[in-house]
Amino acid sequence: MATAREYLNEVYEKVEKRGPHQREFLQAVKEVFDTIEPALEKNPQYMKWNILERLVEPERIITFRVPWVDRDGRIQVNKGFRVQFNSALGPYKGGLRFHPSVTESILKFLGFEQTFKNSLTGLPIGGGKGGSDFNPKGKTDVEIMNFCQSFMTELQKYIGPLEDIPAGDIGVGGREIGYLYGQYKRLNGSQSGVITGKPVAMNGSLGRTEATGYGLVYYTQEMLQANGKSFAGQKVVVSGSGNVAIYAIEKVHEFGGTVIACSDSDGYIYDETGIDVALLKDVKENQRERLTAYAEQKESAAYHEGSVWNLAVPYDIALPCATQNEIDEEQAKQLVENHVYCVSEGANMPSTIEAIEVYQANNIYYGPAKAANAGGVATSALEMAQNAQHGHWTFEQVDEQLQEIMKNIFATVETTAKEYGMDGNYLAGVNIASFVKVADAMIFQGIV
Ligand code: GLU
Description:
- α6 (104-121) packs across α18 (426-444), α7 (141-155) packs across α8 and α9 (208-226) packs across α16.
- This protein has a seven-stranded mixed β-sheet, with helices on both faces.
- The protein is 48% helix and 15% strand.
- By secondary structure, it is α/β, with parallel strands linked by helices.
- It folds into three domains: 1-57 and 426-448, Glutamate Dehydrogenase, Chain A, domain 3 (Orthogonal Bundle); 60-190, Leucine Dehydrogenase, chain A, domain 1 (Rossmann fold), CATH 3.40.50; 210-363, NAD(P)-binding Rossmann-like Domain (Rossmann fold, 3-Layer(aba) Sandwich), CATH 3.40.50.720.
- It has helices at 4-18, 23-33, 37-42, 45-48, 51-55, 104-121, 141-155, 174-188, 208-226, 243-254, 277-286, 291-297, 329-337, 353-361, 369-372, 375-388, 395-419, 426-444, and strands spanning 60-69, 75-86, 92-98, 126-132, 164-167, 235-238, 258-263, 267-270, 302-305, 317-319, 342-344, 365-367.
- The structure holds glutamic acid.
- The site of glutamic acid has 11 residues, from β3 and α16.
């Protein structure tokens, strides 16, 4: 019988052979495989049941054509996808991403990570992800609606409140979810539980918009407190300026920290006095403008082009909330030089494998995305619960549950790391705890 390491290598080679060009997916698989060897040694039945090879193959990938008409009457065509990755723990659950960088590899990495993330929430949800290479930037409202209606006309065949429940991700916010659900309803009747992240007026959940950013800060605060620290008095850099970043900044300020910079895809704003969240919300959500507009409206802020992770000033905590692979090895080394002692991830897979190695080598407290940003999808599951009972919870009721969930996730991560003899190795804790739960559920269900 092969050793755990041999089995891991063997399965990884197969994944590589099947999709040698799926770089992001291979990276996500490698990161998990690098840390779960002790779980396989402790549970040899995972090898006997060939759990890994089954786990890395999505249950189903649906791809479709999305034709739509632009403002000049021209017919445009985009690619649409839904990756139904793993349903061992419940119906497929995960967001839709509209961004020109979307490929099958990106959605497979996101669906794979989502499976583990959803497992950590402790709620009955499997993993899925979908989206399109459609670029919402610069499009009119009507163009966005045309696209969403065409996308849903195809997607609706494959989803349902008990089968697969999409939500938002990059490029898909309340406006897009509104159009997507409107089209679903037109074709299938009213079933609000089929999609989450809905506007509150459409049976959405209070607190869902804030949940990923707030949850990130709740999780990070738990990790800091376990090490005798907290956000109070700390200088923080947050990348991104979308939904996750905005509410992470808001919560850091509430916890007594100061966010001195945030970014968009072209550059970043640096404001030693602390980012003005009200102005940031206005610029991004109402004006739908770039961060240059923020700098023009705030005297203490300066706008710089390039990555915020090249910033060379001392600060304490980094919260990457933009996109995958935004921090590479060199930038991780810059963080160490800046005396950053904690990195916690609001975006999915924002650190390259080499960057994570730098964090580990320098004993940085590390909050991997699968745990740290699980508050969004967890609150989506709370939205599903409200929809199923035709009810509404208050903001406080939702926020209280979110805090409880993030606390429990950190406790599970910490205990698991200890149980496997890797005290304080939160990366191993995250990957092992989430993997074991999915693997056990797969064994119970036989070879399916
Ligand atoms: N797209 C978010 C994530 O990466 C949320 C998914 C959801 O709410 O279903 O977890």
